[in-house]
Amino acid sequence: MKKEDVHKQVRIAYGEIAQQGGCGCGIGCCGTGMTADSVSLGLGYSEEDLEQVPEGANLGLGCGNPVALASLREGEVVLDLGSGAGFDSFLAAERVGPTGRVIGVDMTPDMLDKARENAKKSGRTSVEFRLGEIEHLPVADSSVDVIISNCVINLSPDKPQVFREALRVLRPGGRLMVSDIVLAAPLPEQVRDSALLYNSCVAGALPKEEYLGHIAAAGFTGVTVQGETVFPLEHIVSEPDLAAVIEGIDADEMASLKASIVSVKVAARRPAGCTCGCGGTS
């Protein structure tokens, strides 16, 4: 599938989730009896986190809590890749305080509208949301201290480019902290080829070592996995259309599939001596 076609299908899918205004069905809770808040609590967010964000900012779409691991400090500039309705962006704003700044980037206009409305109604002036693709960030070179992202990079058709862009916009010594879905084993063919499961953060996921390799190849150092857990398959195929994709998979393949979808928390840094913004260490 062409890159532009991937972007189009993801934009449509997440635009529909934004319009629903409730729990999303990507990595989420539709059909499970769970709410967006209960999903987020299970991913490492606290009750205090949920109380700090505007109503409607949490759509239950993440696969981890990158903000908790990012060690954000007062006054820092934070970039949230694939910011959605703004959940992690608003949490980051709480941590960097009034002297800090948070930029959310999302390619889905409906999500952007929702995030901007959430910012407006909550009176948060240190958070802004920009329309753009994470492969081509609308952010200046060497202008942010920390990049966070939550279950979004796996949706990109060009993950190496995402990490090159991340390196470009980070200041020397800047930090990358992402939660994402990776694979511990190859997917069955019908899962790998499913557009529905691409939108659900599975079919586009890379093997863990390949994912980490792309981060290092972009020029990052100190690439480390700070946590990983198998992500429940039932959260992913919680709707009939999604469940139908895995019908007919034999018992062995099903056991492998259930164990192969992994949520990881990854940390890395742009080298302190890197000033060229091109991925080197000049």
TrEMBL record:
Enzyme Commission code(s) on record: 2.1.1.137
Domain Methyltransferase intervals: 74-215
- What catalytic activity does the UniProt entry give for this protein? arsenic triglutathione + 2 [thioredoxin]-dithiol + 2 S-adenosyl-L-methionine + H2O = dimethylarsinous acid + 2 [thioredoxin]-disulfide + 3 glutathione + 2 S-adenosyl-L-homocysteine + 2 H(+); arsenic triglutathione + 3 [thioredoxin]-dithiol + 3 S-adenosyl-L-methionine = trimethylarsine + 3 [thioredoxin]-disulfide + 3 glutathione + 3 S-adenosyl-L-homocysteine + 3 H(+); arsenic triglutathione + [thioredoxin]-dithiol + S-adenosyl-L-methionine + 2 H2O = methylarsonous acid + [thioredoxin]-disulfide + 3 glutathione + S-adenosyl-L-homocysteine + H(+)
Molecular function terms, GO-annotated: arsenite methyltransferase activity
Q: Which SUPFAM superfamilies match?
A: S-adenosyl-L-methionine-dependent methyltransferases (SSF53335)
- Which NCBIfam families does UniProt cross-reference here? PRK11873.1
- This protein's name: Arsenite methyltransferase
Q: Per the UniProt entry, what species is this protein from, by scientific name?
A: Methanoculleus chikugoensis
